[in-house]
Amino acid sequence: MPNMPVISAMRLRMQIVLVLMLCFPGMAAATPPCRGNTLANAKIVVEARVKSLSIGESGLLLPRDFPKRMIRVDLEIKRVIKGAFTDKEAILYGVPYPPPERMFELSIMALTTGMGGHDTFEWELSANKINSDVSFFSLNNCNYSKFPDELDFLQQRRP
């Protein structure tokens, strides 16, 4: 894609965005909206950019009836808005059944990374503990999030 003119690359990305819009029209309706999803309740909030987003087999040894596919989002941290977090990157994991409430917006952010000044968003880093030493940042929690105003038309209005 490096030899592709900029306008063609942008056109390709917009076509991908349109395909995603057709593939995920009712995703927000499939999961109940989070209540109390506010900045005041969040412990750690960062401004970040999506470096990569993938959905694939987890490789975990799980029961036969448990979904084995997982979502992975790699974030590049631009700044910490609330709380203490010293790393410059974070990895979020989630299961696609049901899909995370903000999956569509994360997909758009992954596609628009590097396309200008509107490719960062605010996200709460919410850790799920496996035991006293092991935890991971989850996509499936009711995380605080704030996406660029340019994505307002994509977000479903909730009462």
Fold topology:
Blueprint: H1 6-23, H2 27-30, E1 45-57, E2 69-82, E3 89-94, H3 103-112, E4 121-124, E5 127-129, E6 135-138, E7 145-146
Parallel strand pairs: 3-6
Antiparallel strand pairs: 1-2, 1-4, 2-3, 4-7, 5-6
What report would you give on this structure?
The model is unreliable at 18-31 (pLDDT under 50). The longest helix is centred in the first third of the chain and has 18 residues, at 6-23. This protein has a 7-stranded mixed beta sheet with strand order 5-6-3-2-1-4-7. Helix 1 (6-23) runs antiparallel to helix 3 (103-112). It has 3 helices and 7 strands. It has helices at 6-23, 27-30, 103-112; strands spanning 45-57, 69-82, 89-94, 121-124, 127-129, 135-138, 145-146. It is globular and about 45 Å long. With 159 residues, the chain is an alpha+beta fold.
Features:
seven-stranded mixed β-sheet, 7 strands, single chain, alpha+beta, 159 residues
Briefly characterize the structure.
The chain has 159 residues and is of the alpha+beta class. The protein is built from three helices and seven strands, in the order ααβββαββββ.
